[in-house]
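Quick log. Single chain, no ligands specified.
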Amino acid sequence: MVDYSETELGKVTDYTDQYDAALLQPIPRSKARQSQTAEELLFVGVDVWTAYEISWLNLQGLPQVAIGEFVFPCTSHAIIESKSFKLYLNSFIQSSFANKQQVVGLLEKDLSNACGAVVEVVLYEMSEYAGFSSIGEPKGVCLDHRTVIIDRYHPDPTFLRSNADQSVRELLYSHLLKTNCPVTDQPDWASIYIDYQGPKIDQDGLLKYLVSYRQHQDFHEQCVEQIFSDILSVCDPSQLCVYARYMRRGGLDINPFRSTSKPNPPRLRQVRQ
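-> predicted structure:
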């Protein structure tokens, strides 16, 4: 198991409300990817973070609030440890800025420097976000009501099967994905969407495989990359997209998307978010 003891997760922390970019703590993606370089990856994609607790002061001392969306390329050198991201966002609370554009500029600069790639940042007004991000489900097949017997709760790709004699294009999804933080062991809940073309994937086996992550410890990004890699290796689809929408914790949700071809995920927000 990868050692993350140097992170802020699970530690007593002093909270600052004055802007401080040094609070951001990057974790190299290579820790989980072993020796793979960005050029050797079997996928493209992004990690889409949503922050629901962003606030700062204008020059007259009036608090401003926003919902933030942050898009990190999967080829970045590092991910940002989530507690450090929360502490960093909190450091804006009593800091004064001339306008929203100044805040966006700082966020883009600091996050890009920390992760080693260009990070896209959008700050939404409350009314703007309410009309922009509707809750719903895609057109696809939900796996959650299938009748299966499950007795293994650590990732097991032997559950995966496909039928090479039947080629399909379909979207399968489940709300039953649960993983655990590798530092605190807190549960992380997610809905996961698998859009693929190729040999038909056995739905019972896929559901059992996804549920087998229930006691697995790893960060969101790394769980999704393992799921993507296992499905690609075992089921051999010609096209594959895997998108996990994790529930928010500490005012942040993290939504990794990996694909054989599409660089960005569909705009999707489901009811638990």
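The chain is about 20% helix and 30% strand.
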